[in-house]
Structures are given as structure tokens and as C-alpha cells.
Amino acid sequence: MKKKGKIVCSVLVIILATFGGMFYAWAQKPSSRMLLSSIYFMEVTLKNPGYLLHDINIMEMFREYGNGDTALTGKVGLSGMQQAKSSIYFDVDAKRSFAQKRISAQTDMNLVWIEMGELDFYAEDQTVYMDAPLLGEDIGYAFPTGQNLFLKMPDLTSDIDKEWFKDHLGDIAELTNQIDIEKTGKTLKDEDGTVSEEFVVTIPQGTGQFLWDLIGMESPDYDVVYSVYLTKQNHLRRLSIDLSDVLEGASLTIDGEDIGTAYFYYELPENERVEMTMTRNPKYSHWMDVEVDYFANNSKTYKMTTHLSWQETEDGFSLKATDMRMSCDMDQLAKGYFKGEVKKAKEPLPDLFGEKTDYIHNLEVIDWKTVRDDTEGFINEVLGKTSFSVFMDD
To answer: How confident is residue 27, by pLDDT bands cut at 50, 70 and 90?
Structure first.
């Protein structure tokens, strides 16, 4: 009997070892590693509070806020400006319509208890407008930027959650056998010592239709190429993709053990670029640290950092930007905060320019780079024409 039992145990060990070896061999294939990384992402990463999009309905954010009509109200505070003796506060009432490609923002400017007047901002297509009733009638400027201020967000047909992954796990498995995967030999070592390997993935034209259905777009007529770094346990550590086919000069990288950081790079004309970093802070339920760097062709670097937090409300969400700091080559320009609320418009917004359309379109045009190169001088010139001049340094 004992002999029989030993034989059975031996057979089981051999079977398990065989299947274990087969699974190990299968799991080492690049296509299998991609599938296993998707499963880990679905089962673990999505639930991690350090994940960049944790508890964010990205479909709603894109469709109803990015591509919809919204209203923003709140208060902005600015202090620490080199030429100002006092803090400045703005009560903001702004509206944005993607359909109209317009923004209208009315702001009431105050110095402590003194009401200074109204300073309004508008935007359309590629141009920002400033209207300054506090200076007097018909005083304002137009600043062409050369950049599309109303980029269309993907019309997602589903939130990117566990349910979507479960519904399309078969599609993902099929796609892993259709994509081309190249192991580059490059490695990435995290601060904790974890090493990951780079794979360049090519999604051939005509495959992955379920992905394009998710994004709400037609299948591209070209191959899509991106880079991923996977650990030995097939955990995603970094994903990078060139977005130039959608926005020329743009690329995106998501990074970290929790996939909690996003880097957006945007190459501008004339040897300039913008870099934006967003990092989820898992210590708080709705919090991101944001840094934006603008590398100008005048050899200067402009930086803005802030802590961004939000909470859902009945028809939108509250929004706070705290410890906001703006600098040029490490020299502080200003610090400040924003506290307010963003709401979805229940109905399409009326014409945001209204009766002021002709007036706005005929404002004096100024090259914004001229203002950039002497921001302080421009601000002093504008504010010096108001009663605010008594609060300015000589």
C-alpha cells in the first residue's frame, strides 16, 4: 500500500512539475508577459490608491468636462509678487464651451478690503483676450498663442475599470498574439532596487478594434508603437507612447510601482517645450501634486507647482489648488491658491461672447512672447494705470 502511495505521489509530482515547467515556459514568452501584466493591472493596480486614476471616472471627465460645457466659480489669491506691497484676490466666474471653442471669465479684483474693479479674460480657438474695465472703457489686449486651446479629449465609451478588463480579457489575450514585441535589452532600476526590462510593442494596423471602440475613434491607418517596462513578476513599471499622430510634438509616459505618475511632454515651435508632471498622493483620497515647466527659447525656465485636491459634489466637484508657486529660473514670481467649484452645464451654454464679440475681436494684438520676456513690466504698465499703483513699489 505504501509502495502504491509513493508511486501515486511520484506521478503527481511529475505531472505538477511538467505543467509547472510548461507554465513557466509559457509565462516567459513576451506575449504571455503582456497578458499577465494586464491581469495584474486589473486585479491589483486599479484598486491601489496610489494609482494615478484611482477613483476617477475618466469617461465622465473626458466626455462631460473636457468635451462639454462647464462652469467654474471660486477665489484666486496671489501674493509674494516682487513689485506688489499687498496680496491680490480675484473672485472668478468662468464658463467654458468646447462646442463654441470659447472661454469667458469675469473676475473681480480686490486688495484686502478694497474693491479694485473688474478684470476679464476670454479665449477662442488659439487666442487669449484680456479686457480691463477697471482701467476704463475699451482697454484690453489680444494674445495669439499659435496653439489649439480646445483639444478634443477621447470620447471614451466606458470607464477604464475592472469590469471593462473582465469583459475584454478575451480580446486582450487575442491581441497579445497579434502584436509584435521586441525586447530591447534596456533595463530600469527603481529606488527600491526593482529592475524592469523594456519591450517595444507594435499594434499592427487593423488589430485591437476593441481599444479603438473604447477610445471612441476610428481604427488608425497606421501601426501604433509604444514602450513598456515590466518587472520579473510582470508588473508594469513604465509605459511611454508618442502622441504626435494626435498632437504633433506630444508624448506621454506613466511611471512608478503604483502607476501613480504621468509625464506629459510637448515640443513647441522655435525650440521651446512644456513638461507637465502629475503624481497621485495616496495619503489622501483625492490629491495630486502638479508641476509644469515651460522651457522658453530665451534661455529661461518658467515653473508652476501646486497641490491639487478635489471632492465630488451633487453636480460637479470642488477644487483646491494650494501652495501654488510660480517662478522663473528659480526666482519667485508669485505664490497663491485657488478654491472653487466646477459644474457640468445642464444645458448648452449661450454664446459666451454675446454682445461683446465684435469688441473682443478688435482688441489690440500683442505678441505674448513680448509680454513673457518682460512680464513684470507689462503687469506694472497695466496695473500702474489703476488705483493699484499706490500699492506698487517705485
So the answer is: very low
